[in-house]
């Protein structure tokens, strides 16, 4: 580990594997201690977990360096316990450290079972990511453990779909048991402790105090201002020393025109220099009026409270002639915007500013982030990058301390990113769902039943949704393609989703309500088997994760045709 730490400092954390997330939990333990518990040769946890599963003959090899100390690996073998589908079989597992910098640990486990049917054609890969969590109100450290998976097919096989579905089902069941077993050894982070920690984190953020005089000196200490100052002094001294000349050409009293090409060029330079100097003063005065922090201003009302802490930026694009930029950030959620202060002449600005949104009746779906370079009150601001934070696809605990990479040509060229801390709290507790359904009943004029916790949990697992998402209603329908695909349509406060399972082939997607540009209801027809058709058109660039379910795709957007079959 000591050998790997200097090499891995600053390297990127591997992204989750595409098969999905099996475990996503925070624990009251330091990251290095959690890594020791799960992967140290001296730890007893792997053996007790193998016994819990019924696995036997566990052999754990020593960690070894390969490729000139480039990779740290070890081999694990065991006899996997028999189940309803397969008999007891031998498993081979190769574990490799992808990152180990002392705070963040990423381990890839490649599992093969060659004795099972088609076992030589695939490997199951598991990625264990251990990252630091926020400091708890008790002062203890926390760790965030995420386990994701994928199937790596070594050769093509007609049984690919069946193998993936079987592995997905078995892994989910296994790692639900793993999370429960691990929670008996170390304590999971309590959500109440995280809520208390929010106030401590925000209280620790203090904007850098800087007087207007210091900012002015920093902003105006450049070649344009200095050269303009000396040129102005030079011109004033010249006027004082010079004597009046005789009126000639087209001049008259009060109007002294240049008498040569040289004088004309000098006058032009002085005018352009003066204009540039006045623009700098105008930009500075306008920027100082823009105060960005909501420090001390609390959100009003009860409901969903969104708090965004803007910590700092990194590697923002230098677009000014000085080799720096004057960045500021605009956050937009549910049509309401919050704007940060402007940081002069900085590509790695430090803000430490807090923005709060008044209570919302329903949880927000998206937070838009735009970074601009300030170019004065009369010029269009230059975009330095943008990002979208999707609350439906993100775990709220992950956003408590996160680096957001910016998109856009300038941002991607410089690998720009922002350090944010985002908190989303519900002050109404369980009543928020009942109040929302009551509001919906008044709008649609129909009774809406509150779904059970088990139904909501199944709905969240089906689409990989956060725990605050709740099901409103679901219907039997078919997705209109070349052949009608029978399935169910699910409606929640923030998403609309479709799920179908045809002979083990699953179609599963969702998109946000706010992504929808237009909804049309077409009358029943022969092609829709006598059912009315709902046509949903999404705004351009939205719902890209669900594009495989669209009937048509063009430059204007994507369209989904669903036939409603429930009465």
From TrEMBL:
It is a single-pass membrane protein. Gene3D superfamilies: C2 domain, Pleckstrin-homology domain (PH domain)/Phosphotyrosine-binding domain (PTB). SUPFAM superfamilies: C2 domain (Calcium/lipid-binding domain, CaLB). Residues 544-554 have a biased composition (Basic and acidic residues). InterPro entries: At1g03370/At5g50170-like, C2_dom, C2_domain_sf, GRAM, PH-like_dom_sf, VASt. Residues 544-567 are annotated as: Disordered. GO terms for cellular component: membrane. Pfam families: C2, GRAM, VASt. It is found in: Membrane. Residues 286-404 form the C2 domain. Residues 18-190 form the VASt domain. Keywords: Membrane, Transmembrane, Transmembrane helix. The chain crosses the membrane at residues 219-241. This is C2 domain-containing protein. It comes from Citrus clementina (Clementine).
